[in-house]
Amino acid sequence: MIGISRYPAKEEWNELLERTSVSTGSLTDTVERVFSRVKTHKDEAVKAYEQQFDQVKLACLQVQDQEFDEAEGLVPPRLKEAIAVAADNIRTFHQSQIHEESPVETMPGVVCWRKNVPIEKVGLYIPGGSAPLFSTVLMLGIPAVLAGCPHIILCTPPNKDGKVHPAVLYAAQHIGLREIYKAGGVQAIAAMTYGTETIPAVYKIFGPGNQYVMAAKSYAFQRGVAIDMPAGPSEVLVMADDSSNPAFVAADLLAQAEHGPDSQAILVTDSDQVLRDVYDQLALQIEALPRRELAAKSLRNSFLVLLESLQDMMLFSNTYAPEHLIISTKNPEQVASQVVNAGSVFLGHYSPESAGDYASGTNHSLPTSGFARSYGGVSLDSFIRKITFQNLTSGGFAALGPQIQEIANAEGLFAPINATALRLYHVKYDGPAKYCP
């Protein structure tokens, strides 16, 4: 069952909060081998790995039109309605992030501005397996479409019949994505890195996955393909005081634990009664879960912590930097103002992590493993490059040129001095530029 720590000293926190480490030796060997083969043998290698890892023999890697039509008929109407509501909320939230910036005159005759330019080719990885994450199609596809990315592809593993989960296809089609490839795991990331006869290479790869997919994304990054963020196992930290509902808190911890055996769920409370009640609720509720064995493994990586005060609870959370932070306390807005490190924050007793995971509108692609200290989650900006421009008039350059020369001279770089001097001479004398040693 889950571990308990009562009043740990602050000097013990770092050890307590240490994430589960993964041995990368065998991962790296596998990733390098798969990437090398996909780079050389392309489609043939991807199909071979699909047969090896997903136990499916594929004639064609790309999803065909009739498969979209088939998926349309397999998705229940109520699920279609839920997907539509979630998509609308996600679109509304991300649409609010579209901002055009006005040019700025930094000094007379010197105008600077930034232009939002969508990434031309992006690849979205959607995990399959026992829990096909069609919600991730919405989370990644909607901001990519809103950003205006000209070429968006999606890779996802098929089942043993060679079919992509119908909800994945329906969600993709619902938001306007139809270029989907049947490829999972390391081979999918390798295909999007190098390109094959069927699957095009992309400039940036997005999406969650197991430890092999994460290692593959890191390997792709080393080869010049951008990724959304470094990531590890999913995690939640719940801050709860005596106003919280222990049954809600336990349900939130289990909702995270069910993600995978290496997920982590943490309760931080200043109430021993809440700690004991949550522990009891965990034991009760886990028995009702069809995937309880998986959740139980995750709980062995997790713990309940009793601390002295709300201030200590907040410090503990900021030290951990959770992917998901649930603040189930009195005055949660006031507590939230002290959050420094977190991927996404859920306020109050009726804001479970599952709301953000599926349908409230915020993005569920978030930094894990402490990267919330330095990364934010996926947003519209993740699919955009911001290119800066500047335009100097002759008068603006005449005023700024001497400062440019002074700085270049101090840095010991003389070619910039010459590039400036040539123009200053031309502005001053309105004559042909001369070399100015």
Keywords:
single chain, 437 residues, six-stranded parallel β-sheet, five-stranded parallel β-sheet
Detailed description of the structure:
With 437 residues, the protein is of the alpha/beta class. It has 17 helices and 14 strands. The strands form three sheets. Strands 1-11-10-9-12-13 form a six-stranded parallel beta sheet, with helices on both faces. It is globular and about 85 Å long.
Layout of secondary structure:
Elements: E1 3-6, H1 13-16, H2 25-41, H3 43-53, H4 65-74, H5 77-95, E2 104-107, E3 110-118, E4 121-125, H6 134-147, E5 151-156, H7 166-174, E6 180-182, H8 185-194, E7 204-206, H9 211-222, E8 226-227, E9 235-240, H10 246-257, E10 264-269, H11 272-286, H12 292-299, E11 303-306, H13 310-320, E12 324-328, H14 332-336, E13 344-347, H15 353-358, E14 384-392, H16 394-411, H17 414-429
Helix pairs in contact: 2-3, 2-8, 2-9, 3-8, 4-7, 5-6, 5-7, 6-7, 8-9, 10-11, 16-17
Q: Report helical residue fraction.
A: 40-55%
Q: What's the end-to-end separation, in Å?
A: 76 Å
Q: From the structure provided, what is the oligomeric state, counting identical versus distinct chains?
A: single chain
Annotation field: number of helices: 17
Describe the global form: globular
Low-confidence stretches: none
Number of strands: 14
Radius of gyration: 26 Å
Structural class determined from secondary elements: alpha/beta
**Beta-strand proportion:** 15-25%
The biggest beta sheet reads: 6 strands, parallel
Strand order in the largest sheet: 1-11-10-9-12-13
The pLDDT mean sits at 95
